[in-house]
Design brief:
The chain has a nine-stranded antiparallel beta sheet with strand order 12-18-17-16-15-14-13-21-20, with helices on both faces. By secondary structure, it is α+β, with helices and mostly antiparallel strands. It is globular, with a radius of gyration of 23 Å. Helix 10 runs antiparallel to helix 11. The longest helix is centred in the middle third of the chain and has 16 residues. It is 29% helix and 25% strand. Strand 17 and strand 18 form a beta hairpin. It comes from Rhizobium wuzhouense. InterPro entries: Rieske_2Fe-2S (IPR017941), Rieske_2Fe-2S_sf (IPR036922), Ring_hydroxy_dOase_asu_C_dom (IPR015879), Rng_hydr_dOase-A (IPR001663). It holds the Pfam family Rieske. This is Rieske (2Fe-2S) protein.
């Protein structure tokens, strides 16, 4: 039996230069443990959106790899990411998914912590002696940075600044994605969380996989009206592309005319949005604002995949949390307009439910295929997983190669980063 070091001594056997992925990548427990240490503890991991922490004292629970964390806005308005583990006997100090508080207290022995993680008090401190240092026993605090409302945290104090990790290409696409506010700030409306018996990398592959869309999402396509159906026939148009943006990040542009939602405002409005148009006009919104809001409701025309755990996908966030080598939690986060018209946010939620919701036409089909991929890996260790589609005609992009809309360029981008981080 090979140990983890021996398995990692030949990374080409796990992800080959020919873009073949070894079955062990999905089911080897030792590799999974190394991924949690070498990737999730060493890089920037998305933990929250700024709108989820609207007020001082607002918090939510999240994860950095396997580590449970609390993301909280303190009294100074700063965002802190704290490991959810009491420094005394390791009990979690918070089990409420989100809310507002003035402090955190361990339910076991009553140790109390401030919103910045500092230890504020504990019962009977004299039993620890006069030299007990409360300053040395606060909750572990992670390095935290954000870009355009996207909050990331890391255990690695030596890592490059977040904007350098993202790079200019990613930052540009984040800025474009946030135009879905239609002139208002983007805010989280709610989320749908579920667990899939799959390795986390199966989902990482999916968000830049356009090749599966007409097969897996046939029922979704059949549920659309004519205009929407045409928009989602992006494999037929040949106008889209997938591009490696560096550091494992990638973008899949499906509908190029919807990259920048401030453009093409004079295009004809799809019939499905006309009731919203009439409602906005009745509420007195000027025509130019009506057009901007309605265009934003339909979402962006691309999926932006950020290594290792979040994607900005058309009109929502998809977040993955590894649980073990064959189990991953998925959160689909619905987005709306903070201060925008209620009618527009209702429309956004209905569109989210149509595809991403638990009774939608998209997510259940995706989850079924992800599970079947994991089951299929039991069918033979000698059979590699292929992510080489589109290698034949890739072209240079700004930071990495650009391929056909159905190419597996984004998957290769993620695996190149995986290989780089696992080699350190």
């Amino acid at each position: 039996m090979l140990d983890a070091a021996e398995k990692l001594s030949d990374l080409d056997a796990l992800y080959s230069p020919e873009a073949k992925v070894a079955t062990a990548m999905y089911e080897d427990t030792d590799l999974f443990k190394e991924e949690m240490e070498r990737i999730f503890k060493r890089t920037w991991v998305w933990v929250a959106h700024d709108s989820e922490l609207a007020d001082k004292g607002s918090f939510k629970l999240s994860n950095v790899g396997l580590e449970p964390v609390i993301v909280v806005r303190d009294r100074k308005g700063e965002v802190n990411v704290l490991v959810n583990r009491c420094r005394h006997r390791a009990a979690t100090v918070c089990e409420v998914k989100k809310g507002k508080t003035s402090s955190f207290q361990c339910p076991y022995h009553g140790w109390g912590y401030g919103l910045d993680g500092s230890l504020r008090g504990l019962p009977y401190p004299e039993q620890y002696g006069a030299d007990f240092d409360k300053g040395a026993h606060g909750l572990k605090t992670l390095r935290t940075e954000s870009y355009n409302g996207m909050i990331f945290a890391t255990f690695n104090d030596e890592i490059e600044p977040l904007v350098d990790f993202l790079g200019p290409g990613v930052c540009r696409y984040i800025d474009l994605f946030m135009k879905q506010g239609g002139g208002f700030p983007v805010k989280v409306l709610g989320e749908h969380q579920f667990t899939v018996p799959m390795n986390w990398k199966i989902q990482l592959e999916n968000t830049t996989d356009a090749y599966h869309f007409p097969v897996v999402h046939k029922s979704f396509m059949q549920s659309l009206d004519g205009d929407a159906e045409e928009a989602f026939k992006f494999l037929d148009t040949g106008k889209g592309y997938v591009e490696d943006l560096g550091n494992g990040h990638s973008v899949m542009v499906m509908i190029p005319e919807r990259i920048d939602l401030d453009e093409h405002l004079d295009d004809p409005i799809e019939e499905r949005f006309m009731p919203l148009v009439h409602e906005l006009r009745e509420y007195g919104y000027p025509e130019d604002q009506v057009l901007k809001i309605v265009r934003a409701v339909g979402g962006a025309g691309f999926n932006l995949n950020l290594f290792p755990n979040v994607s900005l996908s058309l009109a929502f966030f998809r977040v993955l949390t590894p649980i073990n080598v064959e189990r991953t939690d998925i959160r689909h986060i619905a987005l709306g307009m903070d201060g925008g018209p209620a009618a527009a946010n209702r429309a956004r939620l209905r569109l989210h439910e149509h595809f991403q919701g638990p009774m939608g036409f998209g997510s259940p089909d995706d989850a079924e295929v992800w599970e079947r991929v994991q089951r299929g890996t039991k069918g033979g260790e000698d059979l590699p997983i292929l992510v080489n589609r589109g290698l034949v005609d890739e072209q240079p992009g700004e930071r990495g190669p650009r391929g056909h809309i159905s190419a597996e360029t984004g998957m290769r981008a993620a695996y190149h980063m995986w290989k780089r981080m696992m080699s350190v």
